[in-house]
Model the fold of this input.
Amino acid sequence: CRSAHTLPPHTFFLPAGANHDAVAQGALPPGKTPLACIFGWVGGGERAMRKYASLYTKRGVDTIAVLLKPEHVYKPVTKGRRTTSAIVDALTAADTIERPLLVQGFSAGAYMYGNLLTTLDARGEKGLAFSKRLKGFVFDSPVDVGGVPFGLSRAIFGNHSEGSFRQRAMQSALEGFLSPRLPMRKYYQASSDAMHGKRFAAGFASPFAVPSAFLFSEADTVTVTEDIREVEKKWRAAGSSVEEVIFEGTKHVMHLQSYPEEYERAVARVVSEAFGAAGEGEGEGDQR
Done:
């Protein structure tokens, strides 16, 4: 009997077809089923992530979700990259290595995706092989390196803290922490460079020529529309079929609640183009 592979802390697995009350698992089972890897936003809990995971499981796609904590961001090596390294370990075992993959990142989840690529680069030929399994991407309210101080300080103290003394004080401290003159900046800049476009020593280059979707709102006070569109432009130039979906009046990572049909339609397109018949599942409305 083949055993499952332990996932890093704050990460859970749900199988394709899982219903709303399925028990989340802390290990990845063997298999060849397509898999979506979700990097949540800082402070997003399991209940919230399960709503997004269901967009994939109902379509026949296994899902793992990382519940992002502040330390994943402010401890880029011991927490951020250690987490992506553990995920790569689980997905490069002999009995999981044939799974095609899709990544969805929320807010600082885009930073974690950059960490994932940096992890792959350190794996050499194995990292190159892994990169070829990346078949699609969805980014919801992605934040670039310049938005980390405000976004993280807001997440730490809660959305209601925006503009408060403690939020602004934390933002100022994080701006100093991420100063280009200090050594910590290199870890965040490496992640940003990976998102914007980079050729890696392992032999692969980002962006990848696969389907992608960027979901955001111009009413969001955390994201910067110009930054997102700069990335979109680079991804299109690299051959990615980029879809931009702008939601009217919605707050940071809160788009699904107000526009469920439009949101699910964008995810469904990427899943279908990424995985073909293997990712079609039952489509909208299936809650097996």
Q: What stands out?
A: The longest helix spans residues 76-91.
